[in-house]
Amino acid sequence: MKPTIRDVAKKANVSVSTVSRVINKKGYVHKETEDIILKTIEELGFIPNQLARSLTNRSSKIIGVIVPHIGPTFYGELLEGIESQAATSGYKTMFCHTQDDPVRELEYLKFFEQYNIEGLIIASNFSNTALLSDLNIPVITVDHILDENIPSITSDNLKGGELGALELVNRGRKKIMLFRGPSFLLTTMERTIGALKIFKQAGLYVEIFDFDLVNPDITLIEQILINNPETDGIFAFSDTIALATMNTLKKIGKKIPDDVSIIGYDNIPFASWVSPKLTTINQPVNLMGKQTFIKLSQLIREKELETLHDVISVEIIKRDSV
Predict the structure, then answer these.
(1) Is 84:138 a contact under the CB 8 Å cutoff?
(2) Are residues 100 and 28 in the same domain?
(3) In-domain check, residue 25
(4) For the segment 117-162, what is each residue's pLDDT rounded down to a tens digit?
(5) For a designed S-S bond to 165, which of 26, 151, 198, 206 qualifies (C-beta 3.0 to 4.6 A apart)?
(6) Quick one: 79 and 149 in the same domain?
């Protein structure tokens, strides 16, 4: 059982109102008494509920969302979908980015407890999965599957990998590279499996290189391309990687798509603004965000889910880079 303000008051041998003044930093409390109370709070692991004073019922109408980082591409669009759908149901959203740091995850879990959130959406490689049950609230993941027992919304990454690979095979490309994300990501592995299935059927061997999906190493990309001049096809697992690669190909004198065909992933707006326009795999990120909240809302209302894991289809957007 979680410690209460009364437990703190009893152990510190003070009144509940004195503990409350220390927590809220209102009113005078002797420094020695304040130190005892703060020490007791730490020893008991007491977490003040900052909303308790203003809530007249158990509903805070707040959800939490954890992402590894916040940017204008995938996660920005995902957060926009979640927030807009949550707003239609009168919910406010707390966005937290962990930078894939387990310590930051723990800090946010404590933070969520303070604010009595009603549900949690996780869009990161969450390390402290075992602690989620302690929140005693519905949890759902998006773009990841942390646990088979935790509901999820993902896009069809296997199909996405197949579609990109098939486009390069149909174009007649033979010397192909995969510029993918970190290998520990489920999305990366699924796209790789889908792509390699098609390449294997075509009797092709491909080289694989891992990059950060958001901030790829431009110098490394250039070195790889210079040292593999026979490359005629590249499937990048994010549009950011693809756009960086296109700039590098132009820099070293390669023509797109005459010399090298390139395919991206995500269909961000920039993909249609560059020249040549980037062929890419479209996953409906905004829709994924909306559907994630809808599913979480059902869990909050204690409605039974029809499916535990939903997979949203993807499509290839054919432009000029292949």
Answers:
(1) no
(2) no
(3) yes
(4) 899 999 988 888 888 888 889 999 999 888 889 999 999 999 999 9
(5) 198
(6) yes
